[in-house]
Amino acid sequence: MACGTCSTGKDGQPKGCKNNGTCGTDSCNKLTVFDWLANMELPNGVEPFNWVEVRFKNGRKHYYKNIENLTLSIGDVVATQAEYGHDIGMVTLTGELVRVQMKRKKLSEDDPEAFKIYRKASQKDIDVWSAARDKEEPMKVKARQFAIDLKLQMKISDIEYQGDASKATFYYTAEERVDFRELIKLFAKEFKTRIEMRQVGFRQEAARLGGIGSCGRELCCSTWLTDFRSVSTSAARYQQLSLNPLKLAGQCGKLKCCLNYELDTYLDALKDFPKSDVKLYTEKGTAVCQKTDIFKGHMWFAYEGEWMNWHKITKDQANEILALNKQKKKVASLEEYAADLVEDTKTEFENVVGQDSLTRFDSPKRKNKRKSNRGNKNKRRRKPQSKKNNAK
């Protein structure tokens, strides 16, 4: 699933096409689907599915009917029907998997108003399309300046030309409703083409720009995540995370999508726990839940009026006390249950003095060879004198 430019260089490092997820050959794009049914033949008498999935700029995908029965494969550039004129896109999926995708997105195969594929794109179509794509970047600079001059609270994030250059779609992000009627007049006068304004969410904008998340990896939305599910603060509460918006928000300013990844596991684990607002009635007093440890299955309760003294019990013990409370029975106290969970916190210290030296990582001192050599010479000179004195 990789193009030739993804090969390894002489130094062992991958070359890469430097397109940051928008591979021009449609080989390493995050929206590319592997057609695992491509090598399988259809049974006798079964006609191939005549719908095709086509992708455009910014991950926009649509499904078109192949009325002309063109022989299409993944990667072909085709001219498709549009509301006005035609558009140019790239085929990303064919065959039975298109039926599966359409069923998942609840699209009807018998839609009489469905758009169709005209033909495979000719060289003239590709030249017009490429010339229109080259105009998008300078247009975006001018469009942003127009929005700033009109003091509109919006951001022009991208521009997409239609394949025949008859229409330009301006994608923008805004927190509130924006009156851009004057802006459209300026765009039409300056760019002399049909204008369409389309608002996109902050998540889609972050997916297009990309970046590094707090986990140290690339953003999920810019690498593999294709659908955006709503994330609520209850997901953080179930996982017992602090409701700090600076930590829970992603680069898009919304709650992180990864809060939903383990939410189902937490919800399954919490089914065995009593609710945190349930009170336990004992002869000593009424106990209120203060803390829950989902992984170890422990709960901490404190008596009303003695909030500083917490008693740890298991979830099974808490359910047992609740079952007795429903029968209008009370246990003596929580201390009877908490006594079984008393942990030995005594720490045994060992004498490790002298085992590791504080200077063990220091470089060893070099001996002065000159001083040692001089000392040896003096010793040699003194030895003969001592022999003479002994002879006398």
Short description, anyone?
With 392 residues, this protein is an alpha+beta fold. It has eleven helices and twelve strands.
Number of helices: 11
Number of domains: 4
Mean of all residue-level pLDDT scores: 82
Q: Give the distance, in angstroms, between the N- and C-terminal Cα atoms.
A: 101 Å
Report the radius of gyration as a whole number of Å.
Answer: 37 Å
Write the element-wise H/E pattern from the N-terminal end onward.
EEEEHEHEEHEHHHHHEEEEHHH
| Structural class assignment | alpha+beta
Strand tally is 12
The major beta sheet can be summarized as: 5 strands, antiparallel
Low-confidence stretches: 386-392
Order the strands across the largest sheet as they lie in space.
2-1-4-3-5
Question: Would you spell out the secondary-structure blueprint of this structure?
Answer:
Elements: E1 51-55, E2 61-65, E3 77-81, E4 86-93, H1 96-104, E5 117-120, H2 123-149, E6 155-161, E7 167-173, H3 181-191, E8 194-199, H4 202-209, H5 220-223, H6 233-238, H7 245-248, H8 263-270, E9 279-281, E10 286-293, E11 298-303, E12 310-314, H9 315-326, H10 335-338, H11 369-391
Parallel strand pairs: 7-8
Antiparallel strand pairs: 1-2, 1-4, 3-4, 3-5, 6-7, 9-10, 10-11, 11-12
